Structure formats: C-alpha cells, structure tokens
Amino acid sequence: MVFYIKGRHKFGNVVDVYVSNLLKHLKLHRLSKNSVTVEFVESLEKGAIYGVCDAEGTEATIQIARTTRAGKVSFMEQMFSISHEMVHAKQFFRKELSNTEDGEWKWKNKKADGYKYKNQPWEKEATRLENELFLKCFPFNMI
Fold first, then answer.
1. What is the mean pLDDT of residues 71-90?
2. In whole angstroms, what is the distance from residue 134 CA to residue 108 CA?
C-alpha cells in the first residue's frame, strides 16, 4: 500500500506515522497495488463535515477539512477524522461498501439506499471504530 499526504497541515512526520499505523491496524498495508491519498483542504463542499472518503478501484482519496461552517478544525479533530475516513477506505477496498454508476449504495452486496445518515451501516462501523483507531494508532509520543 502506498499513501500520499497532500495539502497544508501541522506536524508532517506525525501525520505520516499516523496514516501508516492506521493502514497496518486495518490490515490495508498488505494491499500492495492500492493507494490512499490524504488531502488537507480548506473546506469541503457541504461545509459542515470534517472529512470525506471516495474510492475507485485501487485508489482511495480522503479529504480532511481545515475549516467548517462552525470555524477552524483543530489538528486533533483533523486526525480523529482521518481515523473515521480510513474505515471507509477499508470498506471500499474490502468491497463491503460500493457506489454503482447509477449512484446507488451497496453494503455487503445488498442495496443500501434509503438509510438516514446515522443509520447507514458503514457510518455506524466507522463511528464505532474511530475512537479505538485514534487511540491505538496516533503517535502521541511525537508531539
């Protein structure tokens, strides 16, 4: 697995180690043909969200917002968002989550449109794992 970090952020080496740790913990580092790009952007299209993950084939792109409508997003909030979005990258790579050409969501090969955001099974998993991933993978000793 190859990963790239793009955009302006604090603590470059910390982010590199953190993303590497997340990939190992989620067992994505073994997918040698895949890549993940983590991109820090000023804000995201919807304005209220902290991060988004999009994947196609063997490539996933995670965008992390530096600001939302509510204001500046702290470095630690950005790092926490990476853990959540990395779960989505895992879901795409493991083919648990997919989005068809028609814009239809599938979860574990079953049609999954019509869920409210908080009830989407892929969001429930990402929310359930984000704390654990952050605490286990973030290199606190480097700050």
1. 97
2. 25
Instruction: Quote the CA–CA distance of 8 and 52 in Å, as a whole number.
Output: 17
3-class DSSP state of 110: strand
Domain span including residue 122: 2-142
CATH code (residue 6) = 3.40.390
Name beta bridge partners: 111: 106
pLDDT for 118 equals: 85
**Residue 38: helix, strand or coil by DSSP?**
strand
Instruction: Tell me the C-alpha distance between 85 and 38, whole Å.
Output: 10
Check if the beta carbon of residue 129 is closer than 8 Å to that of residue 87.
Answer: yes
- Using DSSP's 3-state secondary structure scheme, residue 40 falls into strand
> Does pLDDT of 35 surpass 90?
yes
Which residue shows structure tokens 């180690």? 17
State how many domains the chain has: 1
What is the mean pLDDT of the segment spanning 85-114?
Answer: 91
What does pLDDT average to over the chain? 93
Q: What is the pLDDT of residue 89?
A: 97
